[in-house]
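Colleagues,

For the teaching module next term, I've prepared a clean inverse folding example: a structure given as tokens, and then the sequence designed for it. I'd like students to try predicting residues themselves before seeing the answer, so please don't circulate the second half yet.
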């Protein structure tokens, strides 16, 4: 993926020349308010505004679908043992596959440094800019939301700040182009801990 503004930056350039050389104990907080910036640093851990990692959402939906199907059959008085066995096998396979994929991602995309990335929107979304009048002028919606949220309450947790930024983007942004700011990290993050910059 390549991000173009006045200059073009490839994700490979950002990761190889900016993240990979960082040593243990170094902290990098990067804020990207650009289109398709959700995973611009290609970090392995991403979070929802609830504070939970969002890697498991697909697996949970998959498991819920199989369980609701089994319960619906049971409610009708039909006990489909083959279906239950097949569903259990699919659930086990999905959980195992997800675990293996997650382990590979962590081993190949982690950094010894403490890297936190705030992305302006998901990878499939477009970031918006707006005029905020004098003295600010033109600014990205996520940048304005980020600065406003931190200025109003500098003692927020990561989850609180992500929620504040997302809420502001919805309120201030273009309703035709919803952008959902993202939080990702090089290591698991206690999203209840205070934001450090």
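(Answer key — instructors only)
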């Amino acid at each position: 993926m390549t991000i173009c503004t006045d200059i073009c930056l490839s994700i490979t350039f950002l990761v190889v020349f900016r993240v990979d050389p960082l040593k243990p104990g170094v902290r990098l907080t990067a804020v990207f308010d650009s289109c398709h910036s959700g995973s611009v640093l290609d970090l392995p851990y991403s979070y929802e505004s609830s504070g939970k990692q969002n890697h498991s959402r697909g697996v949970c939906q998959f498991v819920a679908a199989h369980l609701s199907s089994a319960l619906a059959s049971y409610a009708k008085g039909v006990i489909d043992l083959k279906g239950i066995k097949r569903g259990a096998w699919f659930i086990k396979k999905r959980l195992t596959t997800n675990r293996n994929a997650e382990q590979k991602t962590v081993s190949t995309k982690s950094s010894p440094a403490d890297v936190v990335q705030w992305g302006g929107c998901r990878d499939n979304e477009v970031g918006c800019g707006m005029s905020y009048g004098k003295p600010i002028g033109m600014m990205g919606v996520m940048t304005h939301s980020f600065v406003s949220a931190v200025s109003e309450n500098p003692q927020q947790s990561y989850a609180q700040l992500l929620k504040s930024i997302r809420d502001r983007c919805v309120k201030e942004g273009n309703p035709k182009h919803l952008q959902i700011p993202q939080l990702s990290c090089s290591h698991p993050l206690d999203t209840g801990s205070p934001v450090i910059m």
